[in-house]
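User: I want to check something. If I give you two sequences, will you return the structure for each one separately, not as a complex?

Assistant: Yes, each is folded on its own. Here is the first sequence with its structure:
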Amino acid sequence: SAMGLELYLDLMSQPCRAVYIFAKKNGIPFQLRTIELLKGQQYTDSFAQVNPLRKVPALKDGDFVLAESVAILLYLSRKYKAPDHWYPQDLQTRARVDEYLAWQHTGLRRSCLRALWHKVMFPVFLGEQIPPETLAATLAELDVNLQVLEDKFLQDKDFLVGPHISLADLVAITELMHPVSAGCKIFESRPKLAAWRQRVEAEVGESLFQEAHEVVLKAKDMPPLMDPALKEKLKLSVQCLLH
């Protein structure tokens, strides 16, 4: 039925995990519509009617359809009156959340996506070797962005915008689990970020955090994709994301 809230998600995707955790953590009732990107389900006509961009996450609330994870998180936090700390009323604290959400698209997001695809998904899943210098450049870029996350955003606070968890932390941690799932030891030499990660996971709750990351943490063990047509389609769409 068209009643109620439907979330179109693939938990392989970082922004989908943020939306999933946010909805579950805040007791927002929704119907989960899983769209498996690696099986090409985003290319179906039925999904194109929901989101012509053929991307997840997507939200359907009756006749209202919304794409883009940041817009979805803000819509959910407003509609369901989530606790203030997620997206604070205070003008400057809210501006700090906005600042992080604006930066992350081209900052951390791209690096984390690249790390997983260059290290695992291309070689293991698509059977395409990545030149060592490409992988090295990807990991170097990730390192630069982790430094920005630490020096500019986290600084000496408990969370990215202050003493409480916000949407910024949720979006950041779900991103960072991408390189973690690829075997990158991103927290080992960064005690400040490691401590922040533990605080964020504790706030989310361990079982919900694990549930949201179960799929991506198994990425390394995925069998190679055999369908040549789908392989080409995925390669093209991912290369658009990576450039």
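And separately, the second sequence with its own structure:
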Amino acid sequence: TEITEKLEEVVRIWIKQIRQILVESEQMRREADDVGPSAELEYWKTRMSSFNSLLEEIKSSRVKKIISILQAARSKTLKQWKELDGSVTIAANEAKDNVRYLYTLEKYFGLLAKASPVMMEHIPSLMNTVSMIYCVSPHYNTSERMTSLLLKITNQMINTCKTYLHEG
């Protein structure tokens, strides 16, 4: 029981740390007013990397051994652990999905940044792709996420126009 208590304490520390990571990941992002859509992709790539690393750690043999010992001891700590494990998996899958869908827009990011203000030729296909993401993505189809993405696309268009005017 002494070993079980020490292992439970270790798992409680892990639970606290993982909860902190999950809370921080859900906090509102602070971004510059003129940030473009590539920042959205970078944000989700970073988040995907973080959660994948966390998942790898959770699935490591060291952690699995501790969890199996606590399962054998019928530890009550495991209920919280399983819930957090599920939450981390959901967050990792969400980030992975969002990166996959945002990659479909990446070809437009460069076009928008380098185009002249007469970028109208790219807008219909860009908007069709955004619409497809909204319809198909299980995680990215919220008004908050779409608003953020469309704002960044608009920012990029404005920045492109400003650059064109300053160079012209």
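Because they were folded independently, the notes below concern the second chain alone. The chain has one domain: 2-167. The mean pLDDT is 89.
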